[in-house]
Design brief:
Blueprint lengths: L1 H21 L12 E2 L5 E2 L2 H7 L4 E8 L1 E22 L4 E5 L7 E2 L4 E5 L4 H28 L4 H26 L2 E3 L4 E5 L7 E2 L4 E18 L11 E6 L4 E9 L9 E8 L11 E16 L5 E2 L5 E6 L5 E5 L1 E6 L2 E5 L4 E7 L11 E5 L7
Parallel strand pairs: 3-22
Antiparallel strand pairs: 1-2, 3-21, 4-11, 4-15, 5-7, 5-10, 6-9, 7-8, 9-11, 11-14, 12-13, 12-15, 13-14, 15-20, 16-17, 17-18, 17-21, 19-20
Helix pairs in contact: 3-4
Length: 371
């Protein structure tokens, strides 16, 4: 009896499985239903159409080129236009130093005075001799006019007088050298001597610095020297925070043998004499005029070679990578060259697309407002 029941149970299970197979539940549960329109064309399912049209979405803006002067940036320092060590032209003991260090001096002002010693006596002797020679010359000329002296004797008297007069001139110059004068208007910047020191010929008495105008000097690379012209207005920013404006007055024609750079001098006014020599400065001199775009720094990227560039769109909204060169940067954006005059640049989503890819675009203006 139990065997008969097991046979019946097995038949029931087999019948259920057969019915399930015949109903198409095994293997056909995921079968697609193909729909055909009235023209016999197959209608794609809705989810297939969405997948096919799912292209990347980005935001872009149209940027227009603007005229901009490129700048040559030069690292340098301030320097006095003239700094001269005033040296003694005769020897003697210093008896007076009328000007203190740091004081302003005028051209021709006495800055060191030396002792006269016997110079005034030699001057008196030379003047006396000159007067004597003058009397002798006068007498010789009168006698020669009467025929009592030969022309040769008269000429000798003239030569003796001229020699005496030259001796007086020499002594006058020697006396003047005891007064060491400022060669130009400026500031007495250094004085290595004191009253009582003995100065030999060519020893320095003081250093005079010409404070107006002033120079900001630097070395420009050989690749940039042709971009500069004398007379161009430049701006120098000092490490102290001061900003001064002047003109390029000199560009060296010979490179420094060690650095292969060229000296450039920017002459700036310094009427109040506030500038000091040796202060670090950065000089910016405009050079050529180029067309450039100002773009947000956030949209800059790198290609596989590590070159800076931007992702740009063509008329078919296909992505391209355009290499650019940075001219300058600031709070308002980065100035770059290398783009077409009007360029469609991806501003949002540029990191999620690759060159050659077609994208859906929402345009915005350059300020970032969606249109």
């Amino acid at each position: 009896m139990s065997l008969r029941r097991s046979h019946i149970l097995a038949l029931i299970i087999a019948a259920i499985i057969g019915a399930w197979v015949l109903s198409g539940q095994i293997g056909n549960g995921d079968a697609e239903v193909v729909e055909v329109d009235e023209n016999g064309e197959i209608i794609e399912p809705a989810d297939t159409q969405e997948t096919a049209s799912r292209t990347p979405r980005v935001r872009a803006a149209i940027f227009h080129a603007e005229s901009r002067n490129t700048e040559v940036v030069i690292r340098g320092r301030t320097e006095a236009v003239r700094s001269v060590q005033v040296r003694a032209e005769t020897s003697g003991t210093i008896v007076e130093l009328p000007v203190e260090k740091g004081s302003t001096v005028r051209k021709g002002e006495v800055i060191c005075r030396l002792s006269l010693n016997a110079r005034d006596a030699r001057m008196a002797e030379a003047e006396a001799l000159m007067r004597q020679r003058w009397l002798e010359l006068d007498a010789a000329q009168k006698l020669a006019a009467r025929g009592h002296r030969s022309e040769t004797q008269a000429a000798a008297s003239q030569a003796a007088y001229d020699a005496a007069r030259a001796q007086v001139k020499q002594q006058e110059i020697e006396l003047s050298h005891t007064r060491i004068l400022a060669p130009f208007d400026g500031v007495l910047d250094a004085r290595p001597v004191e009253v009582g020191d003995y100065l030999q010929v060519s020893q320095p008495c003081a250093t005079i610095v010409d404070m107006d105008p002033f120079l900001v000097i630097g070395q420009v690379a050989e690749t940039d020297v042709d971009k500069l012209q004398e007379g161009t207005v430049g701006i120098a920013t000092l490490v102290t925070g001061e900003t001064v404006e002047g003109r390029v007055r000199f560009i060296s024609t010979t490179a420094d043998a060690a650095t292969r750079t060229f000296r450039v001098e920017l002459e700036v006014p310094n009427p109040e004499r506030k500038l000091r020599s040796g202060v670090t400065a950065e000089i910016k001199v405009p050079s050529t005029e180029v067309m450039a775009h100002r773009v947000p720094p956030s949209i800059l990227g790198l290609d596989d070679a590590g070159t800076i560039g931007l992702r740009i769109l063509d008329e078919n909204n296909v992505v391209h990578f355009q290499r650019v060169q940075i001219l300058a940067d600031g709070p308002a954006g980065v100035w770059v060259t290398g783009l077409p005059t009007s360029a469609k640049l991806i501003t949002v989503g540029q990191d999620f697309v690759v060159p050659g890819q077609t994208v859906d675009v929402t345009y915005e203006d350059e300020s970032g407002t969606a249109s």
